[in-house]
Specification:
Rossmann fold, 5 helices, alpha/beta, single chain, 132 residues
């Protein structure tokens, strides 16, 4: 599994799967490079150190991951997810994609449209009224 964006939401996602699988945590802030291991991440990936997809594929000997959770980052995070997830895998987006007009989905990364990759997303309404 890969978790892109390891701020508070991404860390809670990592913690929820502690011990379940090999977990790649992608982030760059120094504090976000320390905490994920405590929460169950097995591998840390800093996008400032080079290509995220390349770093993870090198660690997995070219094998895709089962699931990707996007909890932060730019539209590029979605592109990384498409390149990382296996056929019939799941991409869960809980990141607010505030900028850009389009998400690029390379047809080969998507299995030529027949890879059965499931991108899903959702928004948790916040605010005091909703939380009550």
């Amino acid at each position: 599994m890969a978790f892109i964006g390891i701020g508070p939401v991404g860390l809670m996602a990592v913690a929820s799967l502690k011990g379940a699988a090999r977990i790649f945590a992608v982030g760059s802030r120094e504090i976000c490079q320390k905490v994920p291991k405590l929460y169950g991440a097995t591998d840390l990936v800093n996008y400032k150190d080079g290509d995220v997809v390349g770093q993870i594929k090198e660690a997995t000997k070219g094998q895709p991951v089962d699931k990707v959770i996007i909890a932060g980052g730019t539209l590029e995070a979605f592109e990384w997810a498409m390149k990382l997830v296996r056929p019939a895998g799941v991409i869960s987006n809980v990141n607010y994609l505030a900028t850009g007009d389009r998400i690029k989905i390379n047809r080969v990364d998507w299995g030529l449209g027949m890879g059965h990759i499931k991108p899903i997303g959702g928004l948790m309404p916040g605010g005091r009224k909703n939380m009550e």
